Structure prediction request, 276 residues.
Amino acid sequence: MQDLLDLIEKRFGERLEAPQDIAKGVETIRGLLDHRVIRRFSDKPVDMAMLRLLCAAALSSPTKSDLQQGDVLIVADAEKRAKIAGLLPDQPWMAKAPALLLFLGNNRRQRQIAEWRAKPWPNDHLDSFFNAAVDGAIVMTTFVVAAEAAGLGCCPISTIRNHARTVSDLCGLPAYVFPVAGLGVGWPADPGYMSARLPMAARVHVDRFDETAIRDKVDAYDRRRDGIFPYRQQRDEARFGRAEFYGWSEDKARQYATPDRADFGAYVRGQGFRLD
Ligand SMILES: Cc1cc2nc3c(=O)[nH]c(=O)nc-3n(C[C@H](O)[C@H](O)[C@H](O)COP(=O)(O)O)c2cc1C
Prediction:
């Protein structure tokens, strides 16, 4: 148990109390606490049987109303993979990941079922998209948990949504199906590193949403994180200048000072969704 508390302290900068009755699941929780994104992989392939096993684990995850709206697309074809990787030259590790998967939101089947069963579909609104997106994200997360438990490493790739239309056309995504994120999967070439998180008190609320001293908490997190892994580069220095202290919040503020995927709504509407 102490090693779990050590991992928590390393991640969040605070020591929790040990719970009274933790009899089972320690190994699983340890794996979750020790999660790290992996972007460097060995050449060893990940075979299809392994990918299917992990898909089965991922598709066993909870799903809204049992609707099962998260799908997986394994990009096995080398030419297709190269085309997708070619869209993201600033993420060169992606081309080297032994396996590439797309996690999809699929609200299409639900609409097909309504048609097959001759039922109305009075649900053409944002929630139809949102539910499918949430299910797709849950499936991806569960895949990552299963893959990491098996010793694999993963990196999600939301930047495939920068090219959502091209990726959709390449992979034949029909109306009401859309990519949530890609995922590079392989055997880790290095152990990665544990990324520090905001303090739990900034993100875990009891009874009432609580922003007490949130700015101080973010400042303290910036400093703590800087003490572990300082940023090697400052984003958009030409525009914002060189900051004397460059922490996580400065980086995130700079990141979102430039429009990011402002056309994604248009793509989603193009897939047939109404978002109002
Ligand atoms: C939905 C999602 C999309 C992501 N997209 C990318 C991406 O496009 N490129 C990338 O290098 N990392 C991507 N990541 C990985 C995050 O950068 C990474 O999880 C984060 O920095 C925290 O690090 P950790 O996972 O090691 O804790 C993504 C993660 C998630 C959950």
